Protein: Plasmid mobilization relaxosome protein MobC
Organism: Acinetobacter wuhouensis
Amino acid sequence: MNFTDFVHWLIGQAFMKTQHTVPKETEGIAQPEPEIKKRHRRPEKILQRPAPKADPKLLLELGRIGNNLNQMARALNIIKNANPQEQQKLDIFSVLLVLRGIQTELEQVFPALPKIGRQSPDRLQKQLEDLNVDQALPSIVLAEQDESAY
């Protein structure tokens, strides 16, 4: 069934009366546009203060140190999950002494840093002395004797 343009127009008019839609502009008569209030945006609030300025060389060196520490932690985690024969090749006591040295140096450079450790250095040293630590023994043997020293 074919409808003429007039029939299409009549159907459209009847549809517009029964449906809730936005009416089109009528022929030749322009509807005045309602005035739209413009909203002004508030300036965004700064949620955190800007980072303090620092020497780029210092930041680069700190990044390198952090990278080295991450590599050490990754290696120790790999060894921790390895079989016991591989674990015996690592001297945990030497690793502990190196890490303790790094911590001591950091405390000297930055005294405001919080103290890190489960025990005081004096108590740790006393426990290690009480074990009669033999430097030739692998650290696995030391850990089996007294695990609380670590």
About this structure: The two ends are 93 Å apart (CA to CA). Residues 146-150 have pLDDT under 50 and may be disordered. Residues 60-149 form one domain. Helices lie at 5-18, 56-80, 84-88, 92-109, 121-130, 139-145.
